[in-house]
Fold this sequence. Notes:
CATH architecture of the largest domain: 3-Layer(aba) Sandwich
CATH class of the largest domain: Alpha Beta
Strand order of the largest sheet: 4-3-9-10
Bound molecules: adenosine monophosphate, zinc ion
Mean pLDDT: 87
Amino acid sequence: MGLTFFNTLGRTQQTFVPLDPSLARVYSCGPTVYNYAHIGNLRAYVFVDILRRSLEYFGYNVRHVMNITDVGHLTDDADDGEDKMVKSSRETGRSVWEIAEFYTDAFFRHADSLNIIRPHVTPRATEHIDDMIALIRRLEERGYTYRAGGNIYFDISRFPSYGELARVRSAGDDAGVVNSAHGRVEVDPNKRNPNDFVLWFTQSKFENQAMLWDSPWGRGYPGWHIECSAMSMRYLGEQFDIHCGGVDHIPVHHSNEIAQSEAATGHQWVRFWLHNEFVVMDKGKMAKRSGSFVTLDTLTEAGYDPLDYRYFCLLAHYRSEIHFSWEALDAARSARLRLVERLRGLAEQLSGSAADYAAGAVDAPKAGGRGISGFAEAALNDFRDALEDDLNTPKALASLQTLTKSETGSAEESLAAVASMDRVLGLNLIDEATAEQQIPEEIERLVSEREEARKAKDFARADEIRDILKERGFVLEDRPSGTKVSVAGRAR
Ligand code: AMP
Ligand code: ZN
């Protein structure tokens, strides 16, 4: 079948064929670095990572570009409010440049610990102002812009297919309709149409704007939307294959990106639009500006492994909303640890050669399952089918689980299939299952105490100790030769 994706543009599932057969070109909207990414934002990047790994798994070379927004993103996507960077600077007393550097580093630290492969290019908006100015000039030359109140606006009445992605009409839509994801916004009186958007702000808009550049329209700074068009075109060309982002970007940001890119070039810009659904909490979306947002540090401080959260994300299809709760995260953690435990059992059957898996010496087989037969091959085929079906990770995880639970087939083939699957899942499964077990002295003491309790037939105490160990991430197995203790995944 080949990879198929649900394309927001047209709302149908379509077979993926890249423009250049040897290269899949992908752009994803990156973080606005005025604060930590919350776990909802991180879901968007886990999704893109699964997409990229899947493309590579299915044999494509990938070029992935993700921007860093460090200027121009206002507190409302529709040109209302204040620059998020400036607001953060005012609130913290740090310069916008310091804030950008600090939160960019924090973002990559979190993304790395989630095993998200870094994009090939991560351009910063502030380093591409010339590209944005050049693109706005092109729009100006083609008659798509107007000047009002000192700013340069994109005139959507000149672009009849405006809103096709979001399935809204441009003509006749009343104020705020396109922006309905954010509730109705106050319409800038300079706009001829409420859905027109700013390409370039001049100083007149915000006196406290710290980042300003000279431009043909006066000193000022770019609107947020233009950066993604300018930077993607610089690094991927004027037409490319896939553009990703969260569903919140469909009505404004991505609709505006399409309008300005296609108006400038006169042809289609992006062929596949893939959007991830939200992580929600307390019956609402998780927003950085609302007080209650959870970061990856919140999770690790509570004793979770970042991979617990990655696993949690993969349990849902990327187009389904996920309800975050600690109970749901616990369930994901337990499932992941049980999986690692089963893999440890399989690796132990192989003794010496298990280390080869950890070192990656046993390469994952490609289509057809080289060296993998029977049950493992069938599981691998199911896994591939699931990914081909619009990256269905819950189904893909289910094939992995079924494989590791089966008593059928050789441990070696099962592990080879798991290693192959984990190239996409990115859960470090083989490494975790074959990692040298470091059992702290305190834990060994508790294990001995439990053995003593068992000998003395104090089963209540023995069970109590088992529970304590479990809670701390250690698994016990009573064998005729004595009790074996092992780390269930990485210890808390
Ligand atoms: P931002 O840093 O606000 O520009 O957002 C970064 C990415 O996270 C964008 O692709 C958003 O669409 C996405 N996003 C924002 N909130 C959530 C959420 N609660 N769940 C999933 N994705 C989100
Ligand atoms: Zn963008």
